[in-house]
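pasting for the record
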Amino acid sequence: MLRLSAIGDVCNAVAVVQAIQRHYPQAAITWVVGKVESQLLQGLPGVRLVVFDKRLGWRAYVQLWRDLRGQRFDALLHMQVALRANLASLCIRARRKFGFDWRTAKELHALFMRERIPSVQGMHVLEGFREFARAIGVPMQAPQWVMPMAPEHQAWALQRLSSSGYQRHLVLCPSASLPHKNWLPERYAAVADYAAQQGFAVWLCGGPDATEQAMAQSIVQASRTGPSQLINLTGHTHLQQLLALISQATVVLSPDTGPAHMAVAVGTPVIGLYGIHNPARTGPYGSPYVVEVYHQHLLAQTGKTASQIKWGTRVKGTQVMQSIQVDAVIAMFKRVMHDLQLQTKVA
């Protein structure tokens, strides 16, 4: 299988890999995956990971060819249309090579494939990935995940949560990879303050990148909640620690980025914030807790609804996410609490 990036798509692809394993328990599965994403997948049962490090430039292709030299596979499931992945597919010898349909294919993807799955127009990304499994005879069933979590990471997360002294936990992952997909720090702070009033410890998480650190610090500065209840772990967790923390949290709040899909994969309720992308395509799969302004902006910009325009069309603009109001997110937070049968506390 070939899916190099990103974290959310890799999480979606795990469900497909494990559906194949359930149907073909003797199958030997090799997954060519990006270096960062491989950190999340370490220990995935029954899967050999071959890491493609894009930072190596052309040498990454040489290394991939060496890693797979002498191997021939029954099938290649090529789940990525990016040119980098298309070129990587040349290093993989397979009797059958499956790619996306002609309409979805771009960056010369169609030229690298011999067989194509049916159109994925109108589908969630995960549903599109599942078409690859169906192409090799795997019946369609509800997605299931068993994410790899080492005992030491689970113990670390449990120790952190229990040490806070709180029984309710909100994991807040505020930073997406693209700035225009981010919400405003003062609005995150307002939701964090509300959660704290409801007896939640709020765990602020993100990577070591300077922009993520700055976002986290802005949230802390805008919040009225003290450091014993708003705990800033930004830059202090790796992916598997974050996955373990999310798995033991009460709820996750995230824009359109990897942790939203990580939460789905471990069964933790997640509130997703969406404006640029259609959440029906890229939102947390199956989650009823999405606050979105995508459709209103799409209609304003194009005069068309999502059903009248090319699937996957993005909304343009750097201020789109500012249309999401604090009250809407708090209302969704209350809905999660109601569904979890958590009593609302008076502030």
